[in-house]
């Protein structure tokens, strides 16, 4: 199959970027989207041009590094699918594909399709941990947790931190990411001890990183490759209100 690509090229965060057109012919429709970009880069290198920079790692839909906007949709047209798990058979022969980096004030472009998502790391480090001395690891059955609670915690912990929720939100909000990290820890016994300080610190850091506020459009859940529920945001708001209440007492 043949494809016409329009890719955002930007030398660094201080430079102006622009869309550059490329044509690729005789592609295998079973190639992944990133393999297609690899093919383009091999062609560019052979021709003496600079390859397109983009983030990737595991290419198994686990690490969350491969995020980009494809035809205006975070990770592309398939629901609950990361860019690396997207294949060319999802597109039509001869189609024009627009490829851009995630757009958000808190995600400055480093180069081409690569953005700086270290703001997520700082949110986690501000409180997304359990600072208790666990000693020797206990048996898995030593701490009683109901099956439902364990499943709910796992559903929240499934967030891979790709940033699609921020990129697709009209406000550039990180509420879904932050709330998922808060929720999966507060549900489990190990995370309850520091629940108040954790939510206050993480929400404060989220605001400090210049992410926008949540206005409940739920676009974040729609574009999340892991299907993280917006109910996490409701729990984060509850935990935040609870923390403020007990801090004032």
TrEMBL record:
Q: Name one GO molecular function term.
A: 2 iron, 2 sulfur cluster binding
Gene3D superfamilies assigned? 3.10.20.30, Alpha-helical ferredoxin (1.10.1060.10)
- Entry-linked PROSITE patterns: 2FE2S_FER_1 (PS00197), 4FE4S_FER_2 (PS51379)
Q: Which Pfam families match?
A: Fer2_3, Fer4_8
Limits of the 4Fe-4S ferredoxin-type domain: 150-179
From its record, what is one biological process in GO terms?
aerobic respiration
**Which cofactors does it use?**
[3Fe-4S] cluster; [2Fe-2S] cluster
List the NCBIfam families: PRK07570.1 (NF005746)
Question: Which family is it part of?
Answer: Belongs to the succinate dehydrogenase/fumarate reductase iron-sulfur protein family.
Q: What is this protein called?
A: Succinate dehydrogenase / fumarate reductase iron-sulfur subunit
Its organism's taxonomic lineage begins at:
Bacteria, Pseudomonadati, Bacteroidota, Flavobacteriia, Flavobacteriales
């Amino acid at each position: 199959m043949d494809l016409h690509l329009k890719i955002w090229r930007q030398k660094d965060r201080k430079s102006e970027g622009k869309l550059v057109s490329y044509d690729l012919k005789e592609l295998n429709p079973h190639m992944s989207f990133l393999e297609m970009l690899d093919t383009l880069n091999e062609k560019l290198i052979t021709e003496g041009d600079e390859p397109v920079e983009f983030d990737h790692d595991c290419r198994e839909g686990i690490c969350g590094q491969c995020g980009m906007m494809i035809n205006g949709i975070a990770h592309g047209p398939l629901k609950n699918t990361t860019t690396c798990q997207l294949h060319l058979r999802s597109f039509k022969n001869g189609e024009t594909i627009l490829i851009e980096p995630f757009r958000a004030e808190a995600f400055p472009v480093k180069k081409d399709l690569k953005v700086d998502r270290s703001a997520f790391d700082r949110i986690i480090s501000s409180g997304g941990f359990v600072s208790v001395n666990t000693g020797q690891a206990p048996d898995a059955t030593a701490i009683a947790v109901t099956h439902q609670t364990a499943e709910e915690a796992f559903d929240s912990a499934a967030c891979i931190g790709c940033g699609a929720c921020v990129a697709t939100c009209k406000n550039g909000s990180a509420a879904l990411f932050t709330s998922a990290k808060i929720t999966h820890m507060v549900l489990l016994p190990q995370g309850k001890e520091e629940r108040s300080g954790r939510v206050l610190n993480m929400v404060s850091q989220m605001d400090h990183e210049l992410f926008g506020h949540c206005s409940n459009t739920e676009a974040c859940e729609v574009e999340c490759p892991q299907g993280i529920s917006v109910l996490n945001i409701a729990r984060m708001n509850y935990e935040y209100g609870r923390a403020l209440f007990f801090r004032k007492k």
